[in-house]
Structure formats: structure tokens, C-alpha cells
Amino acid sequence: MTYPAKQSRLSRRSVLKLGGMLGAVPIGKSLDKVVAPPPPNPLRSPERWLSSRLVEPLPLPPLEVIALNHLAFGPRPGDLESFRNLGATDEQRLIAFADQQLNPASILDSACDARLINENFQTMQKSLEQLWADHVVNNDQGWEYRMLPLTESERAAWIRAVYSKRQLFEILADFWHNHFNVYGWHSYVGPVFVHYDRDVIRANALGNFRQMLEDVAKSTAMLYYLDNYINQVGGFNENWARELLELHSLGAENYLGVMDPFSVPVDENGLPVGYVDNDVYEAARCFTGWRLDYSSWEPGVGQSGTFLYYPDWHDRANKFFMQKYLPADQAPLKDGLDVLDAIAAHPGTARHIARKLARRLISDNPPEEVVAAAAAVFISHVDSPDQLKRVVRVIILSDAFRTTFGDKIKRPFECAASILRITNADFIPSNEFSWNSDDMGQPLFSYGAPNGYSDEKEDWTGTTSLLQRWQLTNALLEGWIEGSVIDLVSQMPSSVRTPNAIADFWINRILGRPMHPAENRQEIVEFIAQGRNPDFDLPDDMRIERTPRMVALILMSPDFQYR
Amino acid sequence: MSSKKLSRRQFLVGCSSAIAAMAGARLTSLAFANPGESGAYNEDILVVVFLRGGWDAMNVVMPVSGEDRGHYEAARSELQVPVSGEGAAIHLDNQFGMHPAMAPLYDLYTNKNLAIVQAAGLTSDTRSHFDAMQYIELGTPGQKSATTGWITRHLESAPNLPPSILLPALSAGNSQTMSLLGSYETVAMDSPGDFSFTGDWYYKDLQRAALRNLYQGDSWLFQAGIQTLDAVDLIESANPGDYTPANGAVYPGGSFGSNLQTIAQMIKLDVGLRVATIDLGGWDTHEGQGDGSEGYFADLLANLSQGMAALYTDLDTGGASSYTSRMTMVVISEFGRRLRENANHGTDHGHGSTMLVLGGQVNGGQLYGDWPGLGVDQLYDRADLAVSTDYRRILSEILISRLGNSNLDYVFPGYQGYQPMGLVRSIDEPPPILNQKIYLPGVMRQVEP
Fold first, then answer.
1. Across A181-195, B353-367, B430-444, least confident range
2. What is the pTM of this model?
3. Is residue B118 helix, strand or coil?
4. Could you confirm whether domain B42-195+243-411 is CATH 2.40.480?
5. What is the least distance, in Å, from the CA of B338 to any CA of chain A?
6. Nearest residue in B to A453, CA atom
7. Does B210 touch chain A (CB under 8 A)?
8. How many CB atoms lie within 10 A of CB B36?
9. Which of A518, A542, B134, B363 has the most crowded CB, counting CB atoms within 10 A?
10. When comparing pLDDT for B63 and B319, which is higher?
11. A213, A256 in Cβ contact below 8 A?
């Protein structure tokens, strides 16, 4: 497709955002020094942006803080205590938490389910065929109804992020949505988004990667988004094949550019170490004829909107993909399936997926040991139905997981959800909430380019990004957003009355650790005391008026932004 | 001139003590000086437009005659821009024409404000969007490990900027572009009117003051926080308010037009802006790009061209102090697209591209760069337009001749053999004598009934 799609969302802002749709791309980092030190510049001094205060590195917080921020959208009240009751040692507690979270079906989720039922969603139970029939073929109710499967999926995602007890599953669903990103507002993606979210992403999030690749390849959403629905013999379209290799599987780290495919070195198992442009073209030919059952005039094509292998469009000739010979006239689908088999079992794919998962769950630059360990499990369980669950488990139980915090910044989705969670908000996703949260720069399912939202802090620390999260914090805490009610004072024991006690109660509740640097606590105390003695009780009216503003300040502080 | 200048008092009243202390001592000599007054400091402004997705450069400027026209037509039976008749290319010379949707730029071209560099781009072997963008914006082709963007390194190494500038760099839009990676003096902003700290009328100022203390520190997050607070102080004290473009300039609707307007507004606020970046996405036209002259791709080009022309008109405030005389805009995309169209009225990823350079000091009205030809053996990988001009050559010339920064080793490490193309007049040369009013671009002339 030509992202961003030409149709626009109904809300005022999101479509405007797409101007910079490819702006946030991941930044590879290594210690290589490619840039020499700057030449002396007597005029411009760096002091302008350097303060006098040297901040020590963030001390390692308790394990429950790491776990609830890396494997969940932040803690809800009581979550940190629950984690501490899971075992006698940190290791026991983490294993218990991981195994509970990695088996989401075993977690009773009635509170979240009730909220989802309350939304009266119309599309969440529909099959792909029903979605297509109702929202594309027979839709006479206009754009909003056409896109209802998307907007309902978006609301459901927010409710689950805030209320579901299956938090790791929600984190991973978000991860895979970005990994296999499609632009939800594409006019043929939005109507089937429920299918993509439910049957492609969520169905495989803890499953087998090879199966997931195939489900993605055959999904109506991806077929449209990366143009394979029109990929045919005699003039192949390489969009899908290129991103399949570069983003979905082997990764740009294994792309060797324009090179004679016969000169690519092989590894110890005889596999080519990477892919070249010729492999992109050969893969594109392999996927010719992988299209959709949607046409009013072609023979043998119906109107169901589901995947269709169409031999008339398939390039029958022999192919050569990553040093494997594919003879002419293979069985239906086999050329494409051979490509998926080859890339899903390639160690480059294993490392790429392992590194991305570790980046999501540990830090922007995860240590190589974790990546290697997770990649090894990825390869040794390449055919297991729970391959991805095993890979994630290795990452969670690594030393690096337990010893890393604060190298990441919450993205807007995590920031907003964590505010709603820790404040025990009564939250119903309204249009007004979407408009406000979209302004932070991460409207769900609305990223235009196929690489998905960046998972690195450099892309989320710009001035607009930070300012908008402060704005959302105050809007929520001031009660300005329809559907979001936060009553903090009633959650505070009546004995908590002095500025010191109020500040400590909320710092402990929100962060589960002291503020850093320690003197930042004093700033919070002074904010709520406003010159009064911090050991004396605040009058009721001041306690009621100042507590939400002080809590907002904690939520806007650096301490709350870390992941 | 209708630009709203920020008075010293207005600034100091609204501003945080930190910024005021920093700026106070230098207000007389720095960003508040009128253009041309301060002399010692370079005052040129670089605007970088990045076209995300890889634009189809072959349909931006295309051959209109000769053997290459034959190659072009053979490769593009559906997508070719015709030589004559309806939707014909705008002929730039005997050999090349410009897409008709770029008509808003044609007057700027004939007025010699717009230069076009053909077959420009990245010399690295990649047809990946994301690799190509990183190489270009980090300024380190073939390497992705740099932790600063090329514009960041320009700002770090420029020898002729004031000791402090209030707002040297702007990323117009929601996020900071990668060419400004690692810059803690950049403001990323959609619109100055929305850029404020909101909250309870009484408590928000207390929160803001507290945040300044909470974020005081030297690590990445703390610096980003202070950068944000400073930017809010600055924009608020500049009191941007409503903006009316000058000369009746009309920006196109949508984010590109409004972000361009933000750039113009920030330039005119005279807060010291030296570089601005802006993105326009949607160029990855694998399908449905329209026929040669109309459709999706033509609409994108029209949006780009109208926006560029509107910015130029808006900034063309006349005479030697015109903002346009200090502004150089460069338009770049990560690559061009395949010469041969695909079966879906689209084009796949290619190599050589076209770059545009617009400004009051540009030696425009001509095509630059060696044309490699479209014969199959002349193409890159027998498929795409080759690259004859390294994109760094174009940016380097602007850096040296306009921005007065010759530290190429630092900005573009590893770049060798730089030679100027003569794209822009050097800051040392006197400006040409032109009656600007006679040559105003076409967008301005929308007065006929």
C-alpha cells in the first residue's frame, strides 16, 4: 500500500500525525566510534543544557518493581505486595510470576471481562467472513461502521492494558502488533482488524513463530497492507517480500544489500549468513498468487475476503531463494511455504526476534548473553507449539532481567495505562481520551510504516513527547477527560494527613521505591506543604485539593517515566 | 515586515529564571538582533524536508527527449508523464521536464531560487527504507552506530553561532528527527499555539516550578525534561498567538502545510532558529500511484510543491533583509524508485534520487549533477537510476558556503573528496541585485478574479 492510507480517521488529530510516519525508526547502537571528537568551539558552550546536579545512576529497585514495569503496564494498587507473596526468594517469586503470566488462560480475569462486556462491542465475536460481509461488502452505514472493528479493537486494547490480569500477554500482544505492524486506518485493514488482532496476533503471541508468519502472510490485513494481494506473475510486487525479510524475520542486520547471491558466505551449517536483493525478488515470486478471495469478475474468485491461493497468478518457473533451489511447478503454496520454512529456521531470524523481545522486556540494548540464550531456545524449539513462550521465559529468567531497570522510557501507551492502573481509575475509553492520548504520539494501530513504533528511548524523549504526557497526566488527574474518574483521597487512609505522610504514601504506592535522587522527595513534600510545617496535619480542604496535584507531580516526575 | 518581535522585557517576564539568566546577559547581541545587525554570527537558516518512503524521482524530473526518453517510455507504459498534450511535463530544458503537479515551483525555478540535483543520493548498497534513512540522517553511510545526527554535529561544531541561542533547532512535528539525534537544544513541536503546560490555573505554575527542580540533572531523561521545560518557557514567552502568513501565502491543508507554517512562524519570532526539519510521508508507492500526471503521486507532489512555494512566499519579506535571503531549504528522500514500473501501477524500491535546493542564495534555474543515463548498462544493478552525486556533497556545500561550517570531517566522518557544485552563493559574496517584487512566485499572484 501507499501508507499512510488516503482515508482519514474521524478524529481531529491522528491523520495529521502521519506526516512523520516514518520518523521514528530504530537506531542501532554499538560502541563503535565512528565520529571523532568535536573540533574545539570556543563560542558555544555545552553548559546550557547541563545542570549542576550530577545524578547518580538509578539504584536497582526491588524485583517486583522491575517485573510489574517490564512484564505489565505498571502495577495496580496491591500488585507489588502480591508479587512479594509469591515465594520466599526473589528467584522463586519471579519464576512463579512468569509461569502464571505465561499461562494466561489459567488466570481468572472476571473484572476485565465484565468491563469488556459493558462496552457492548458489536464486532469482537465476528468471524473474518462476517467482518468482511458486514463491514465491507454489505456496509451501507458509512466510514465509521466500516472502521468499527478497528475502533472496537482499540478500545478493547486499552481496557485490557488497564484492567486485565493477563498483563504479560497484553505486553506481548502489543509487541507483536508492532512487529507485524499494519496501518489500521487503511480502508481494507480496519474492517478486518478484529480478525488480525484475535486470530493472527493474539492466537500466536505465545505460540510458534513459523505458524505466526504463515497466519500473517495469509491475513487479509497484511495482504492488503503490503500489497501482496496483487502480487502476480510477470510483474511481481516486492513490498511484502522485502519487509518479510527485513522487518519480520531476518532483520536488517542480516541484509547484505545488492550482492551476487552466489558470493554470500555460508555459516557452519551451510546456510547463507544473510540475504541479498536477489532473495527479495525470488521471495516475491514465491508469493505470487497469494491473494484474496474478493473479485466480482474473475473465474473461481468469490467475495469472502479470505485468503486465496490463485494458481493463475503464480509464477510457475523455478526459483533460487537463499541458496536453495526451488524447482518449477511445485505443489500449490509450496514456494511461499518454503520461504517461510527457511527464514523461520534461520539463526539470523532467531537472533533478530530474540533481541527485539529482550529490548521490549529488559532494556534498549540488551546484553548479548540474553539474546544468544533466547535465540538458542528459538532454534531448538523451532517446531514447538509453545516456542515463543519458551523464548520469553528464558528472557524473563535471565540475570539481565533481574538486574536491569531504567534504561528505557515508558512509551505513551504504557505511560497512560500505568497512570490509570496505579491511580485505580474508573476508566472507560472515550473519544476524548483517544484524542488526548493520541497527542502523545502513539495512537494504537495507527502507525503508518511497516516497522512499528520505535522501542528506543531516543524516539520518546522529544519535547512534544514529554510535554504531551505531562498534559495528559494533568488532564486525567483534574478529571477533564470524559470516562476517566480518579478519586485519590478516598484511597488514602484517613490517618495520612501530614505533608510528609501524604507524600510518602503516594511515592511508595506509585513507585514502590524511594525517589531518585533522594532529595526529589523533599520537592514533593514542599509542593503539598506550600510552606506549612510538613509534620503537622493539613486541613481537610487543602488535603483534598492538593493531593491530586501532588500525585500528578509524582506521575510527571522522571521516576515515573522509567521502565 | 509583520513579524512579531519578542521584546526583551516580554521575554524576561515569562521566562524561567534559568533561561533568563542564560540569555539575559547576551540578549543584546544574539537572537534578538535584527538580521544583518550582529555581523559576527552566521544567521542563515537551513530547512531540511525529508520525504519518507522513497519518492519516485524518475517521475519528478524525467527525460523528455532522446534515447533516454525511449528507455523511460519503454519502462513506464502506464506511469509515464507525457511530453506534450494534457498533463505534459513542464519542460526545463531540451532534455528534461518536471512533473506538472510541481507547477507551483516553476516560477521559483525560472526565478533562479530553485536548483534541482539529479541522480543524487546515497552511494551505499541498500534498498531498505530504514537503513537508508539512518545512513542519510546519521550522516554515516554504511554505519548505524553514530549516536548523533549530522545536523546535531553541525550545531556542535559550527564556529560562528552565538554562545547561546534560545531555539537553534526545530523539528516541526511530533518527534525529533534522526538528523537531530542527540541534540538537547532541539524543540520538537507541532504547533506553537498548542505548546503549553496545562493544568489547574493555580497549581500548574507550582507544578512547573517543581518539575524544573525534579528534572535537574545530567542524565538523558533529566536533560530531556529540562529541554522540554525550557522550550515551554520559551514558546510561551514568545507568545506566538495566531499566525497570519505574509504576502497572502496559502499553505496546503494537512500536517505538512501546518508544520511548514510552524517553521515560518518560529523564524519570524526571531528566537534564533538556525535549522528546522520537517517530514512528508507517504511516498512508498508500490501500487496505485496514479497515471503519469494525476492521482496519488501527483497529489503528493502538489502538496510538497504548494507547501514549498507558500513558505518561500511567506518568508519573502522583501529587500536585503528578507528571510528568504537567509534561508536554504533542501529536499531529500531515502532513495528513488525502480525505473521499470511494476504490474500494480506502482514502483518498487530503487536507488538514485533527485534533490531540490530552494532559497534566496541558491544558484537556481538549472539542473545539477551528471546524468548517468537510463540504458540498462548505465543503471544501478541494471534496474535503477545510478547515483552520480553523493547527497553529502550537496549538504556539505550548504554547510560551508551558507552556514559557514567547514568541519566536514566532524559532520560527515569518512566523507572524502568534497568539491562544491556551485549550488549556492557563498556567504562572502554580495547578494545579487534582484527586484524581488517582480519575480514573486506564482502562488502570490492569486489576485485575479
1. B430-444
2. 0.88
3. strand
4. no
5. 11
6. B175
7. yes
8. 11
9. B134
10. B63
11. no
pLDDT confidence tier of residue A235, bands split at 50, 70 and 90: confident
The answer to whether the Cβ–Cβ distance between A2 and B288 falls below 8 Å is yes
Rounded to whole angstroms, the Cα distance separating B372 from B427 reads 31
Chain B contact probe: residue of A13, A34, A557 with most B CBs at under 10 A = A34
Q: What is the distance between the alpha carbons of residues B98 and B79, in angstroms, rounded to a whole number? A: 14
A-contacting residues in B 121-150 (Cβ below 8 Å): 124-131, 133-134, 140, 143-148
Would the CB atoms of A38 and B153 count as touching at under 8 Å? yes
- Which of B137, B174, B206, B266 is the best mutation test for A, with the most CBs of A within 10 A? B174
Cβ contact, residue pair A467, B197, below 8 Å: yes
Which residue shows C-alpha cell 520466599? A88
CA distance A149 to B148: 41
Average pLDDT of the residues of chain A: 92
Residues carrying CATH 3.40.720, chain B: 42-195+243-411
- Nearest-CA distance from A407 to chain B in Å? 10
Residue B26 has pLDDT above 80, yes or no: no
Query: Are the CB atoms for B101 and B302 separated by under 8 Å?
Result: yes
Give dist(CA A101, CA A225) in Å, integer: 32
Among B321, B391, B317, residue whose Cα is nearest residue B357: B391
Q: A358 near A395, Cβ under 8 Å?
A: yes
Q: Which residues contact A404 (CB under 8 A, 6 or more apart)?
A: A66, A362, A363
- DSSP assignments along A22-41, one per residue: T--------S---SPPPPP-
Q: What distances in angstroms separate CA A413 from CA A511, A556, B399, one per listed residue?
A: 18, 15, 39
Element (H, E) at B210: helix B203-214
Query: What's the rounded Cα separation, in Å, for the pair B352 and B336?
Result: 5
* Helix (H) or strand (E) segment spanning residue B186: strand B186-189
* φ, ψ dihedrals at B296, nearest 5°: -55, -50
**pLDDT value at A135 more than 70:** yes
How far apart are alpha carbons B53 and B304 in whole angstroms? 14
Give the pLDDT score at B66: 97
Q: How far is CA B367 from CA B83, B94, B394, in A?
A: 18, 12, 13
Q: Return the percent helix, strand and coil in chain A, to nearest 5.
A: 50, 5, 45
CA distance B183 to B149: 8
pLDDT tens digits, residue range A312-356? 999 999 999 999 999 999 999 999 999 999 999 999 999 999 999
Q: Indicate the residue of B219, B226, B281 with minimum beta-carbon distance to A21.
A: B281
Categorise residue B51: left if φ over 0, alpha if ψ from -120 to 50, beta otherwise. beta
With contact defined as beta carbons under 8 Å apart, do A273 and A267 qualify? yes
| pLDDT computed for residue B441 by the predictor | 36
ipTM: 0.91
Please give the residue of chain B at the shortest CA–CA distance from A520.
Answer: B214
Report d(CA A173, CA A71) in Å as an integer: 12
Indicate the pLDDT class of residue A36, thresholds 50, 70 and 90. Answer: low
Taking the alpha carbons at both ends of chain B, their separation in whole angstroms is 26
**A224-252 as b/e, with b when 16 or more CB fall inside 10 Å?**
bbbbbbbbbbeebbbbbbbbbbbbbbbbb
d(CA A411, CA A461): 9
Write down the residue that cell numbers 538582533 correspond to. Answer: B33
